[in-house]
Amino acid sequence: MKKFEEIKSVAAYIDRKNIDTDAIIPKQYLKSVTREGFGETLFDDWRYLEPGNLGDNHSLRKKNPDFFLYNPKYSGAKILIAGDNFGCGSSREHAVWALMDFGFNAVISTSFADIFYNNCFKNGLLPIVLNSENFEKITSSVSRENNIFTVNLNDQLISCVDFEVQFEIDKRRKEVLAEGIDDISETLKLSNKIKEYENKKFVKTPWIFNG
Amino acid sequence: MKKTLYDKLWDEHHIHSYDNGYSLIYIDKHLIHEVTSPQAFEGLRQAERDIWSKKSIMAVPDHNVPTTLREGGIKDPISKIQVDALNKNCKNNDLLKFDLEDIRQGIVHVVGPEQGIILPGMTVVCGDSHTSTHGALAALAFGIGTSEVEHVLATQCLLQKKSLNMNINIIGEMSEHFYSKDLALLIISKIGTAGGTGCAIEYTGSAIRNLSMEARMTLCNMTIEAGATTGLVAVDEKTISYVDKKPYSPKEEDFLEAKKYWKELVSDEGAIYNKTIDVDISKSGPMITWGTSPEMAVNIDGKLPDLEDEMYVSKKQDLLNAFSYMGLKEKQNVNSIELDKIFIGSCTNSRIEDLRVVADIVKNKKIANNIKSAIIVPGSGLVKEKAEKEGLDKVFLKSGFEWRSPGCSMCLGMNDDKLNEYERCASTSNRNFEGRQGRLGRTHLVSPATAAAAAIHGHFVDVRDI
């Protein structure tokens, strides 16, 4: 996984709570067997005025001019800001792949659904949880023209022209992103311990191995 | 120290503590389907890693399989690629899989318990959020993303931070036509779709003890819609007799040994929960969702929210969005809502008891003229076979329902079973999100009984009145 680097970008804001993973990436695109190419269908139902399918040429589909990411002031945004409980619903990691493939590197909200939150860290997407006071501070400045935010993971800081806010992230998650850690390699370092555990388990609860 | 059921399951599977608050947890059972696994197998191949424990895996295609005309295989070429990828990955690695032609094929969360592959005390994961279903068997079960699927394939473990213990204690007893689906919707309407975030929920109360195992599965299944990835019910005699004599459950002496272990899978008297919520069901009736989030639910004799009501001030925009998407108005009576389609199925409500309830209600009645299609999709080939032995299929067909082959079907509309734009559906599934059952489709989540009654009347009715 790539190491997380400081982001300097405009932030795109969608004032909506409970954005579910079905909205982030609809089911028809889940038939893909790769991790790539989901960006063009991010928020598909909101973004296009006609239905689409995997394999379509999406540039030919009629776009919804009112879709928030088509607002020129959000062009090139690497930071997404959305309401409470972002990423609820299905466990599909395709939601994270779609956000990243579109160009987002960080999502700011007041809360995230658990599985989505986990999935972010496996792919280098930084989910930032802010309290409602700081969240309002950020959202109220988003509407200003040319408002560039900097997200610095090391200092746990979001800053813009006239203020900055601190965010919390646990130590382990921070390391994973900052160093681009591969969890599997880390876990395999404990192979012997896992085997020891399994050996005890064969005796104590042999019915576990019922496959 | 007194432990909750969740504490016990956690401790039993805990392998290692890191100094950063994370733990390495052992995973006993890994369920796999065609949609969230191909990229995980690909990742494994690229990194040249082996599967840690092949015996821990059960695979079954369910999400995008057709529920009609299966002879000759899958017609949709894109779906076929995905199911073929699952076949290939399982064949190359010698994994247990129930093919489309196998009578044991079905929805992964129906098949696992049905086969005795899921047993009390196990840790269970699947790249599907409704893995919470298996908590009904006192298994610590939760959904994971594809990268974590890969992690479990390669290491048999997951890095986890322990969740908080939440107790949802049910006060009062279940009344006639108030089913566990209604109970789940009632709970979600009270605590919200993020109410359980960061928590493992254990359901307690005598009403829970009186639920059948299948009803408990429905309740635990819907736990993810309250934001908690895990929902649990403690072991009792019902749990033990449910797993007895299943194809993959332990036999004879081994069963007796296992039984001793399983009986300990209850929260200790006086164990501490981080949060406890009492939910009184003594005056509750059938529930129905009217909006685009499972928390937007009311009693069948209720109305849509009144925007002038104080309690909705902060939610006004969400409500307006939902009214607009659903084509409904504030203060509208829910039982006046007319329907186009009926879907009975999904990992929430497609088991034999669900089908029996439907058959009881629709027997010798016809579905209403305004219903364009009413489909019943059993949860597995074995559920289908059982229903047919009981003659339920004939009841359904006579009433005008279609009787399909097992799969996830219209719960998420990955196959051909979906809603067209603006069609309105009474659905026994678990999510009423925008576009969930088809672009611009409108979903109302209900119990099988309420869906059956709606099919006959063409609009929602209180199933207690018929």
Structural commentary:
The complex is a heterodimer of chains A (211) and B (466). Chain A is 31% helix and 15% strand. Chain A has 211 residues and is of the alpha/beta class. Chain A has 2 domains: 7-180, Aconitase, domain 4 (Alpha-Beta Barrel); 181-211. A 7-stranded mixed β-sheet of chain A has the order 4-3-2-1-5-6-7. In chain A, 42% of the residues are buried. Chain A is globular and about 65 Å long. By secondary structure, chain B is an alpha/beta fold. Helices cover 31% and strands 16% of the residues of chain B. Chain B has helices spanning 5-13, 38-46, 77-93, 108-114, 146-155, 180-191, 206-209, 213-221, 237-243, 252-262, 316-326, 352-362, 381-389, 392-399, 448-457, and strands spanning 14-17, 23-26, 29-32, 57-59, 96-97, 123-126, 140-143, 157-160, 164-171, 199-204, 230-232, 275-280, 287-289, 297-299, 341-344, 373-376, 402-403, 424-427, 442-445. A 5-stranded parallel β-sheet of chain B has the order 5-4-3-6-7, with helices on one face. In chain B, strands 17-16-15-18-19 form a 5-stranded parallel β-sheet. In chain B, strands 11-10-9-12 form a 4-stranded parallel β-sheet. In chain B, a hairpin with a 5-residue loop joins strand 1 (14-17) and strand 2 (23-26). In chain B, helix 2 crosses helix 5 (146-155), helix 12 (352-362) packs across helix 14 (392-399) and helix 12 runs parallel beside helix 15 (448-457). The longest helix of chain B is centred in the first third of the chain and has 17 residues, at 77-93. The model of chain B has no long low-confidence stretch (mean pLDDT 96). Chains A and B meet through helix 4, helix 6, helix 7 and helix 8 of A and helix 2, helix 3, helix 5, helix 10 and helix 11 of B.
In brief, what are we looking at here?
Chain A contains eight helices and seven strands, in the order βααβαβαβαβββααα.
